[in-house]
Protein: CCA tRNA nucleotidyltransferase
Amino acid sequence: MRLDPNDHAWMRRAETRRVMAALNPAGQDLSRYVGGCVRNAVSGHPVQDVDIATRLTPDEVMRLSADAGLKPVPTGIEHGTVTVVSGGMPHEVTTLRKDVATDGRRAVVAFSQDWAEDAARRDFRLNAIYATPEGAVFDPFDGAADARAGRIVFIGDASARIAEDYLRILRFYRFNAWYGAGAPDPEGHRACVAGRAGLASLSAERVWAELKRLLAAPAPVPALEAMQEGHILDEVLPGALDFRVLFSIIINDREKVRDADALLRIVALAGAEGERVSALSSALKVSRAERARMIAACRTPRLVPGRAPDERARALYKRGGQAVADQLRLAEARGEGEDHALEAELTEALSYERPEFPLTGRDLIAAGFAPGPDLGDRLDAARKAWIDSGFTLGRQTLLDQVVIKASGGERDT
Structure:
């Protein structure tokens, strides 16, 4: 088998060819493309990142890259990985490796010169395909056939591969979500179910990163159904899980050609219930920004499509466009509200720009009011009047109203 560079723009890219020329001095077969770029080229998926496997040591990669005028960055040099930047484009270059010891979370590796040895330590057959710069393919496990057929199959004994790193359980379903055709490989699924208790040994950060990538797949339902049947997510997510709302969100995304939204999908999986989402976000150690969005999507009272214009305007101002859009999509998944109004309200929410309240505390002080709690109360009352007006009252009108309301007593001087 051969990949013709004429058919694959990423192989002809000048930045990438400069890296391969530097790492294959005098035309030697020292460095090959590997992993996702080859897998996606074989299966017809877009190629995003370019990974390279090499017989060179990390120090040799650093030296040869620098000599060629490229920028080598030791991003994971203890594991054999150097990122070589060419024309602003990163290429991850990793020395061939073999496992010396594994504990289910990380591996101790030794560098190797053997392509087959490096391939044997990888997770799935479709990830162990190599290609030279000219396109000659080395495929020791027939991974190309898997890639074209949408099969995700562990290399060798599935249980042994999982015991080396339990994250491979989540990767198995993630790769099925993105590249699989139909239900996951039965042997791999059985091994994942049998080994699922090992997921508890993984860091929350690794689990969350993998779940986000899985839930970002356009059509992950078959993979998620297998995970539901095997109680895989019970090992890493606290509380009851609502697959019904999650599947409804995914189906709506597909039917209405919306981008997959991993954060909204994890909220749906937690039933869009505040306490459960809070517990889940704590368990997974999500970022502050992610947590804030997830909690806002669960705020009560719930919003549904079909509300009056003034109610929508208030909700947008108080909650923000993203939170309103999230709640509308969750309502759609639950079958709540008026479906005919949904798309217009989603567009309104996602294009919303929050108006700025025109009155400030300085304005009131300049008008003779003293700083203090009363000033804040007057400002809050003015803000409420502004919201009730549909955000139409101007600064001077609001200031006049504050003065009039205060005229029953003496103004502070």
Q: What stands out?
A: The longest helix spans residues 373-388. The two ends are 88 Å apart (CA to CA). Residues 128 and 221 are 26 Å apart (CA to CA).
